[in-house]
Amino acid sequence: MDEIKVASLEDLGWGGYFKNEHSIARVVAEYREAYRVRSINGEFLAKITGKQLFLATKREDYPAVGDFVVIDEMSGKKAVIREVLPRKTWLKKKYSDKEENQLIATNIDAAFIVGSPDKDYSLNRFERYLVIAKDGGIKPVLIINKTDLLSEAELRAKISEIKERFGEVDILLTSTVTELGLGELEKYILRGKTYCFLGSSGVGKSTLINKLLGKNEIKTMEISETSGRGKHTTSTREMYFLKNGGIVIDNPGTREVGTGDSVRGMENVFDEIRLLSQNCRFSDCTHTNEPNCAIITAVESGSLDKDKYANFLKLRKESEFYKMSELDRRAKDRKFGKFVKKAKNELEMY
């Protein structure tokens, strides 16, 4: 990648939220046991200290793409990460085969949630991404990509569906074939602000970023005729600096979008349901089969979208399951701690 000149910390996305420090860099890529960081002095291959490695108990204790870090710059373009500075915003998601939330990226101003009109297009999927974005304090922006595959009538119908389901969320329409909306997308991205691209594999996230960069920096391959998805997708998270001063992060596509314990995101995305619940007969109403449930009444009358209601129940169940497993895990940790303490005491007796 041709290096865009970084003359100040503001060019790295530094804002007033952060305490000013010397030797500040930003994590621009993450590898196995190493990170690529960028400061006003250039790019460095960095590792965390042994102490940080020893003290880390979960994924969120490690640096992530987007983090601002305090580093010691060394010869040979190498560096040591001494400290991860407080995160302003974050993106996390839950994988079904892992117990803890997975940190995707941090210090993001807006998340571009990309969908394309193939068989994976789903308002429920959009809703999941909206939850994890709002849970981390990030503004969501929906992008319908590959609009060249739709007729004008089909496109209007999808926009109408989105507005009816999600209200006043920003919507961008793009096509890398006809170049529809690419200028509008570029104008949306402001100097010194950071934007993250989210979406399933093959929806065109990397291709959109290549268009913004003005070159094929991110390698992609043609779409499979049988599956309709990209044959090659991004495998690592990486940050790119645009000529207009904006900053974008490309993310690996995924078919699985778990929301974990995204309480704040759930409350924001399903605010209509939260307000309706205040009129339920029972304060602990589950909104499934209780009498005089305001939410069920709204669904039956048609004033609340039944698909939104169904997705709310599904995401709430996931959140409750995650919290339950988290409590179980803490109980096991306490039990193991007592076992270790007892074993140490018994050993001291000999």
From TrEMBL:
GO terms for biological process: ribosomal small subunit biogenesis. It comes from the Bacteria. Residues 100-257 form the CP-type G domain. Binds 1 zinc ion per subunit. The keyword rRNA-binding applies. Its cofactor is Zn(2+). Pfam families: RsgA_GTPase. Keywords: Cytoplasm, GTP-binding, Hydrolase, Metal-binding, Nucleotide-binding, Ribosome biogenesis, RNA-binding, rRNA-binding, Zinc. GTP binds at residues 145-148, 199-207. It is an enzyme of class 3 (hydrolase). Monomer. Associates with 30S ribosomal subunit, binds 16S rRNA. Belongs to the TRAFAC class YlqF/YawG GTPase family. RsgA subfamily. One of several proteins that assist in the late maturation steps of the functional core of the 30S ribosomal subunit. Helps release RbfA from mature subunits. May play a role in the assembly of ribosomal proteins into the subunit. Circularly permuted GTPase that catalyzes slow GTP hydrolysis, GTPase activity is stimulated by the 30S ribosomal subunit. NCBIfam families: ribosome small subunit-dependent GTPase A. This is Small ribosomal subunit biogenesis GTPase RsgA. The gene is rsgA.
